[in-house]
Structures are given as C-alpha cells and as structure tokens.
Amino acid sequence: MLPISTDGLQHAAIADAQLTERMHPAATAQAAAPSQVTQANNAPHPDPSRTYTSANDQNLAELKEASVDMLDVIGIGIGPFNLSLAALIEPTPLRALFLEKRDAFFWHPGLALPNSRLQVSPLKDCVTLVDPTSPYSFLNYLALHGRLYSFVNKRNASTSRKEFIEYYRWVAGQLNTLRFSEEIKDVVPFRDGYRIRTNTTTYLARAVVVGVGVEPKIPACARSLLCDTVYHAADYLERQLPHAHEHVLVVGGGQTGAEIIEDILTRSVSTQITWATSRSNLFAIDDNSFVNEAYTPAYSRRFHALPLQQRRDIVEGEMLTSDGISVDLCNRLYEMLYDRSADGTLADRFRVLSSVVVKDVTPHNKRWRVDLNDIAMQRNSCVLADRIVLATGFQPRTPPFLQALLEGACMEDGLPVLGPDYAVRFSRHMPGPIYLQNQSRVQHGLQSANLSLVAHRNSLIINSLLGRQFYLNTSDRQMIEVYAPSDTSERDGGVVAIPSSRHLLGSV
C-alpha cells in the first residue's frame, strides 16, 4: 500500500465532507454542534499530543485519520533486523510498511574498511535459516550477480562487510514495503492499534516493530569533546584519515578496534599508534562449533526461561563468543608487527596498553591529554595524542517516541520485559503488540544483538502477528544436550518455512 500524503488526505477529507453536506445537510449540522459546544466550553482536547487552532481543524484531522487504512504492522527503522522482517513478511498475508528517517539503506558505513570481514556465516542473512527457498537469500544474490561458483571456490566461507552491505542494499531495492526519508514524530495508541506520525504523513497499524538500531557508546569524559580529532569508530571512514606523523590513540580491544589498527598500519609506517583496552589481552573470538550452539533457537528459548541473574552471568561469561577479534585478524596484526620489528620500523611507533580505562580527556597544546587508570596495578598514567578513535562499542538507542511508548511496560531490573516472541509485556492494556529488535541481550541472550538468529527472531514475530505458525517449528538436534522437559521436540526445534506457503499465497 502506498503511503497517503497529508495533502492527499486533506483533499480527500474535504471532498468527502462536502459530499456529505450536500447529501445530508441536517446530519452535518448535528455533527458540527458538539464540536462548537466543546470549543465554547474550552473542554480538554481528546488527544493531548495534537493541537488545533479550531474545532474545524480537529474535525478535519480526525477525518484524515479515519480515511487511512489500518495496516497489520509497521516497522520503525530499516536496518538488517527489520530488513529481514520485511523480506520474510512478503509471502505472508500481512499488510506491512517499514519506515526509516535516512534516505537510503545504511549499515555502519564508517566501518566498511577494505579488510573488514563478517564475523558470522553469510548464510545468517535475512532469510536463509528460516526460508532457504526465499529469493532474498545471500546465495541467490551471488547467483544473480555471477559469483556463486567463485564464492564456493574460495578458501573460506566468509565474506567482506562491504559485500554484505551490498547484499542488504540489493534486498532493500526489491522490497516495495520500505519507505525512506520518513522520520517518526510520535507513536500513540489509537482506536484498536497505533497512530504513527512522521514528518510527511500519518499511518495506522495494529502492531509496531521497533528496530531503530544502536548508537555509539561514548565514555562520559569524551562526550562534550567530540570533533574532527575525537570521534567514535563508527565515523572512522567519514573523517579525515590519520596523518603519517600523528600519534593516534585507539580505545577498545574488540574487532572494530583491531580493524582500525590494521587500516592505520597498512596506510602508513610512520604513524605512531597506542592501542588501549580494558581487557587483559587482545582476545580472539570464541568461534568453535560447539560454542556456536549458543546461537541456535533451542538455546535462545532455554536462556529466556532462566532467572535474571543467571542470564546476566551467562551473558558475561559468553561475551567472547560475540565480542572478540577474529583469529585471522589477530594473526595478521601480529605478523605485521613482527615484520616491522624485524626491519626496524616498529620501535617507538606502536604499543598496546592492556587493563586500562580512560579516566579523563582534556585539551593540551592543540593535542589531547588522555588520563588512564590501570585496572590491575591501580595506578594512573597519561598519553598525549593528536587523534582519539573510540572503538568503545554500541548501545541500544531509545528515541523519545519509544520512551513514551514504553511508559507502561513491565520492567525487570531496569529493562522492559519481553516475551518469547519479543513482544513487550505491559502492566496496562495496550491496543496491540509492540515488538523490540536489538533490545533484549539479557532477555534472550547475545544473539539478540548480532546477526546469528535474525531470521529466526523475525519468524517468531510473524507467527505472533498471524496468530498461527506460518513458519513451522521443526526439531533440530543439538550436539550438546541439557536437561529439558519431555516436550523437547516442540520446544527445541528450529524454524523453517512451510514448503507450500508460497504456492498457496500465489507468490513466485
């Protein structure tokens, strides 16, 4: 369904009102009377989020909204998570739209470094692990672009971040339910659903899926200092790249920090680099096959049923299964440093400071003084740098409309409680479900913040919206067994598409 512009709604509303007045003048006069009385008595407006200059403006606004079709679901934000949802919704009978304030699809463009690699299998794309027959799979993308055999012939089954961004853009270009340049102004309960007001128009939907993504996590001492030489890693490629004779401080010992270090080392042999991390070493990601069983539907379901503190402990203990440096990158960096050490170009040019946290950042003679606290030794030190790159991670974003929407949510230790289908649980009646993407690391596990189970998560949301299993559960035997009730065949299953669903819905 195409979006209805405000001007279009206004013309339609005026035309309908004029037609009604010609056909039923008495009824129109009767209908106008209550509005005139309300205005005269200065009664409170029925919708405090909207203001009107006159009763006629109020009637026109209500008439506009009454003429907007009620959609089944609206997705707010078009990143990888809601893009996957849009692709999986296509063969269903659900009427959906997805809104994004940016003018095109982006996925951390400032981090698309030449050597950056995807840390998960590209088969964990928008659709494959739920619907392997979908035309929106990564393998179909490769086939249509003449690279399927070449991909299979490679020495590894991974891909670059750049290629996966192009895959996402390819999917986005094929879906007609995506609307860009639509900034959300507010989302409020309205009749038997929600009214979503954007900078251009108004939509109505029975359910909302919020996938607004993440925002950079900035140390408190640096938030007021962000500029061309102090910035988060997310802006790395959008800033002027480090100069040959600069001293660059990179803060953060994860994959992003390591990729930036590699990029600087590749570009210049004279740039001085200090790499600071709160970790005791530059740990590689724990990516063995058994550990990856933590990123399966069965594991996620069992995790969600555990007590809060146990879930928190597991997330902390399994952090390196999601937030470590790839082994190949660790080895490449070490080899680069060894070669420079051997030819004498490394001395005084590179050092790693482990177990330190940034305590303060202050200007100092056109440079930056960074005070560090040594966690292990409980002592302080400082670094003078020309440029600071903060590879300090990301955190869930909570825009104002979402804060207002979650006011009545049930909370668990400061977090909104989500059901197994990722729907928010409220302490008061709500006219329809609100689903949250990428907001449940402690509710559902580390998989909620990465790409591992994105298709599975969206299949659960779709089944919840339909009130039936469009994407069926099938048993998926795991190599590591845990105690479970006798209904494990139902609870521990993976999710795949119903084989005949596309044919039944008349899709190609």
Task: List the defining traits of the structure above.
disordered C terminus, alpha/beta, five-stranded parallel sheet, disordered N terminus
If you had to describe this structure to a student in words, what would you say it looks like?
This protein has 508 residues and is of the alpha/beta class. It is 32% helix and 19% strand. It has a 5-stranded parallel beta sheet, covered by helices on one side. A 5-stranded parallel beta sheet has the order 10-17-11-12-13, with helices on one face. A hairpin with a 2-residue loop joins strand 19 and strand 20. Helix 1 (6-23) crosses helix 2. The protein is globular, with a radius of gyration of 27 Å. It starts with 5 loop residues before the first helix and ends with a helix.
Helix content: 25-40%
Distance between the termini: 19 Å
Sheet of most strands? 5 strands, parallel
In one word, what is the shape?
globular
Report the portion of residues in β strands: 15-25%
Which structural class matches the secondary elements? alpha/beta
**Average pLDDT taken over every residue:** 82
Q: What are the segments in which pLDDT stays under 50 over at least 5 consecutive residues?
A: 1-54, 484-508
How many helical stretches?
A: 16
Count the strands? Answer: 23
Radius of gyration: 27 Å
- Strand order in the sheet with the most strands: 4-3-2-8-21
